[in-house]
Write a structure and sequence with these properties.
The protein is of the alpha/beta class. The protein has eleven helices and nine strands. The chain is 39% helix and 20% strand.
Length: 348
């Protein structure tokens, strides 16, 4: 049994109200027992509760009826191969560092590109009009690490769209915290649009999970709530500029095992700290990749795209049978009986 309007069930906390009102007025403390002279003293004390019991039961049944209980009948199901793929894009400040000029898409334009209305902020002059940072800390738009990561994710989504693979994709960005762009969905047009804005808000540090929550914490929590496929993948695109403490490493490894999650890491830069996140990927049964240029980064996504799918069965057609009348009519009868009983027994 399911409920169409479950919030009505919160009204159940008010069900004891008739009993409390009766006590306040003194009906329960001093009932009229002139008609109960033939009963024992104990029976008389219990008998005056009868009206309240009927009214409380009636209000309970009426509340359940208002919540619209339904019986769900599954008419048809569909089985297909799918994956639940979450993509986490690093937007820490270091992702603004120069990476290289992003090449053209290896997939090419699709309906996703044609339907995208564009970014209003990119219609204004951007920092391409400014000279690049000679120290390499920031770069022109189109040559940053985040641009390479963003372009690769867009190609991954385009590829999934053309392949009609039934995969569900979700995306979030992270620095020291996580910010969801869109949950798991088959709507790849929406995912594509969200990826287009993944570079907004660059700044801050990087947290792989030394402090909870990290990207894997956010991914497993979301999969626990919305996951369907047995194959669960987290693709993390990052420059790897954060170490992972031994205690945190073990915690994240166990978390991945608990939720059957495999981590694939795409590194858009190499540094002394990146070995930790690569080791974590290997420990979860996933894999780490080094991408020394945008073309290799796209190749990494193609490699992941060819990996593991699982069979998913979903309900495609259902029918809901209304059951509210099974509670509504008894509710009215109980409330009526309780009211009459109160008039007769308690002389009210």
């Amino acid at each position: 049994m399911i409920f169409a309007h479950p919030l009505w069930l919160l009204v159940l906390v008010l069900v004891p109200l008739p009993w409390l009102i009766a006590r306040r007025k003194g009906y329960l403390a001093h009932p009229d027992t002139r008609h109960l002279s033939s009963l024992s003293s104990m029976s008389a004390k219990l008998f005056h509760f009868v009206p309240i019991v009927f009214i409380v039961l009636g209000l309970t049944a009426l509340t359940v009826a208002l919540a619209r209980p339904q019986r769900l009948h599954i008419l048809s199901k569909e089985t297909f191969k799918s994956r639940d793929v979450l993509i986490a894009v690093d937007i820490s400040g270091s992702m603004a560092t120069r990476f290289g000029k992003v090449p053209d898409s290896i997939v090419g334009d699709t309906d996703l590109d044609k339907d995208f209305p564009g970014r209003p902020d990119r219609k204004q002059p951007d920092n391409n009009t400014q000279p690049p940072d000679p120290y390499g800390f920031t770069a022109r738009v189109g040559e940053r690490r985040i641009d390479a990561a963003q372009a690769a994710v867009l190609d991954f989504v385009r590829n999934r769209y053309l392949a009609k693979a039934n995969d569900r994709l979700g995306i979030f960005v992270f620095d020291t915290d996580q910010y969801w762009s869109w949950p798991l969905t088959h709507d790849l047009k929406m995912i594509y649009r969200k990826v287009r804005f993944a570079d907004a808000g660059l700044g801050g540090g990087t947290n792989f999970g030394n402090s909870k929550p990290g990207p894997m914490d956010a991914a497993t929590e979301h999969l626990d709530e919305m996951g369907r496929a047995a194959t669960r993948v987290l693709i993390m695109v990052t420059d790897g500029e954060d170490s992972i403490y031994p205690a945190a490493f073990e915690r994240l490894k166990q978390l991945a095992a608990q939720y059957n999650l495999k981590l694939y890491v795409i590194l858009v830069a190499s540094n002394s700290q990146s070995a930790d996140i690569l080791s974590l990927a290997e420990a979860t049964g996933g894999k780490g990749f080094h991408a020394d240029n945008p073309a290799e980064l796209k190749d990494c996504f193609q490699t992941i795209d060819q990996m593991e799918q699982s069979v998913v069965t979903v309900d495609t057609s259902e029918n809901r049978e209304e059951l509210f009348y099974l509670f509504a009519f008894p509710a009215l009868a109980l409330i009526l009986i309780g009211t009459l009983a109160e008039a007769l027994i308690l002389n009210q």
